[in-house]
Amino acid sequence: MGKKKIDNKFKSAKWKQVKIDGNLVGDDLEGFAGLEVLENYNSSFLSGTSKNKSYLSNELDGDIFDVTKKKGKKNKKDEDESENSSESENEEKNKEDDQPKKKKLKKANQDNFPGKFVLLNPPSEQDRIEELFSNEENSEIRTTWNQIGITSDEIIRSLIENNFKCPTEIQRLTIPVSAYGKFDILAASETGSGKSLAFLLPIVQNVQKSLKENEKEEDNLFSLILTPTRELAQQIHKHLDAVAKYTKVTTACLIGGLAIVKQERVLNSNPNIIIGTPGRVWELIQDGNKHMQKIINVKYLVIDETDRMLQKGHFAELEKIIELLNSSESNPKRQTFVFSATLTMTHELPEYVLKKKKKHLKQLSAEASKEQRIETLVNILGMKNSHKVFDITKNAGVAEKVVESRILCSLDEKDFYLYYILLQFPGRTLVFCNSIDCVKRTVSVLSCLNVSPISLHGHMEQKQRLKNLEKFQKHEDSIMIATNCAARGLDIPNVQHVIHYQVPTTGEDYVHRSGRTARANKEGLSVLIIEPNEVKNYVKLQKTLGRNEDLPMFPVDGKIMRNVKERVRKAREIESLEFQLKKTTDMKNWKKKAADDIGILDSDDDDNESNTNRHLKQINLALKHKKADLAKMLSTSLIPGSIYSLKFPIGQINEKIETNPLNIIKKAKHGNFKAKKMKLFRKRQQ
User: Which parts of the sequence belong to the Helicase C-terminal domain (predicted)?
Assistant: First the structure.
């Protein structure tokens, strides 16, 4: 449209060609072909009517102009315009003098018609907050949080964005005491009950208040939060950044497995709150990092998953950090937060406690009472005498929504039952093992069965661990085989099953493992697979949790199990052959490399190599046949028309299916836990 307008404007323009000396074709003029000049150029090309200003004038001035279509009268011939241009200009000036108000209004309207670029001042943060809380529902949410001591509108704005509309029970109990009373807090609650926000909210609010009162404190280190695992530290850091999004509070996460140089650069920005694992935090303190030297004056200390952090023989760096924090009496106002799903712990006391108490305190035993465990915690962490204790754990720490069950089988049958559960009841599932070797073997067997599990253990690189966690959270039916490094604190959404492939050695591990499911007020399933040698640990676990009754049996369809066993046995054979193949190949390559390095040439070596190649060929041939057999098995269904549904049991709770496993477990009556049962069980396995 704009181009057509310009063509009409200069339709009658007179152009004169300028003669140029030289040969335009032969000379190197870089594509220059000719030159023309406009002869009848005058002010008519610049003035015109107010509605039809020339595009040329705008281009000459260098202004940004719009190309919206304007209504106006058609231009007269250029000759008439050249004769009457001065008269039209005078008339326009007179009109402007006679009607100044109308002209101003007209100009104001032109500045804002569609197509113009209008710069508007963005709303202030206060305007946004007022608009947010003008909503009745949001106003009620603010009132709810205000009642327990969270009065910062910036923090409440973040809570609303993240759909935290009301505090949980542990938050209602602990936040008012920590926000108003400044008491030390020792709290225990079920997994998934919102413990992280219970200490993050009051800390962020208090730090925000300090920064508002004194801007010179913006480089201070206010809080240190310690966790037992790297994944938990990163999770808390993510929650912290969400809470502090609209405040000026700065944060940093210090964990092992990542470049320490990058973390030192982060510390150069002087973060107000640091979350980390004891090992990396202590390493940076020892390296003399300037910001980390401020740790002795932190106002808020948090130790999450305390029972794990203070176990005997674990986290020696934590003891050193605590000794450093308590070595000086210059920080009597420090507030300490201790949170865990349990209060049980077994460990030795640090040297400074033993010296102060003159060795009157002994190592805490498993049989110690709740009061003794709390007293030991208080002494170890140097907490104030005016501390507050909150223990709202129910059912010995296991979340109320977790449906527990067990399977009794031989060691050889564990893979059968694991595969049966994974195949019959798809859903996001966490399988826990006690050792890394067990994780690797289980992953290998399940991979042969096309289950595609994800692994997670302590020997993996940190980047790979994070990548696997993200992959596990991405797919609804994903399966993860992990050690206890995935048992504590991780808030993975919608985990439907937790399977204990090996019985955990402590009650605390069982509680935290089972706590990965049934989060956010949802139901979840926890299954213990028990072999004869683990009965002792199972009995001990039940006793630790204060139970007098046995767990109900997990229902299994015997017809399906027959086909399951055939598949798993074939997968085991394949896994064994693959292991032999890898081992033989590695040995062959090692011998060849060693011989080449030494420079040995021997006929015996040639014979050995030919025998090895023949053996490898046999293994590959056997693998090919067995994989073909397994593929044929996997292509067929497991007994069509089985009485059991192939859906995830929790998804069928509202359906009237009597054979639903979760419904059967719920209706099952807990039998008395008698040794006679276990004797018969052992006898049957023998």
Answer: 415-585
